[in-house]
Amino acid sequence: MARKRKSTAPRKMMLIVTASKEAALFFSQMRKDCRYSNLTVQYAEDVDNDLEKLIAYTSRARSHGRYNTAWLVFGFEALGTNAEEVNRLLPVAKHKRVELAWCNPGINLWYMLHMNNPSSFVGESTVIDAALPRFIKGYTAGPEYLLGEGLNLHLALYPNKAKAAINARSYNELAKAATGIEATNLVYLLNAITDVCGLADITHNQKTIGMKK
To answer: For the segment 178-210, what is each residue's pLDDT rounded down to a tens digit?
Structure first.
């Protein structure tokens, strides 16, 4: 009697489109560090810094690549966007099957939340960039850092992942009072990554690099 073959459901595929090169580099580090083979990170380099155009781009990329889920990651400051525009475009993104993940002012806020919780809302990246070298050895603003001394930034921040989520929750209350919207919802993206890609596997490299004691 022939043995029945086990049916294996196709593995779900996830796409992250970023509005900045820096965010693309950071999430590419995450993909590598955590061994997320079914996660694709794509920088929307040729798209104008316009949120609605970026949503449309991400929707097309999701369809063309036949991804099960797609997220657009952006910073408020770089796009010149605000709470009103983001709230207005959330239904548009949902209709196009695109999830939105943001940081206000930029992804450097997410780095900061791994070590420190600002006591008031900070709306300028330069303020955060000036503070980060106190916590991250050799930190400089911009994507060049992640290509050089910050090549292992995600791995260095990873042990404080839970702390970042806690800090984000309390900091978002300050941000909502100041702007009408959360400063960052990256926690939702990280939860979605776990749902689709599974738990991180960083056993091949557990060394923490670049963090100040």
So the answer is: 999 999 999 999 999 999 999 998 876 655 444
Q: Average model confidence (pLDDT) for the chain?
A: 93
What predicted TM-score, i.e. pTM, was given to this entire model?
0.91
- Would 140 be classed as within a structural domain? yes
pLDDT for the residue 202: 85
pLDDT tier at 10, thresholds 50, 70, 90: low
DSSP the chain: -PPPPPP-PPPP-EEEEESSHHHHHHHHHHHHHHT-TTEEEEE-TTS-S-HHHHHHHHHHHHHHHT-SEEEEEEEHHHHT--HHHHHHHHHHHHHTT-EEEEESS-THHHHHHTT---SS----HHHHHHHGGGTBTT--SSHHHHHTTTTTHHHHHGGGHHHHHHHHHHHHHHHHHHHSS-SB-HHHHHHHHHHHH-S---TT-----SB--
Query: Is 209 among the domain residues?
Result: no
Q: Which domain holds residue 143?
A: 14-197
* 5 falls within a domain: no
Domain membership of residue 210 (yes or no) is no
Domain count, the chain: 1
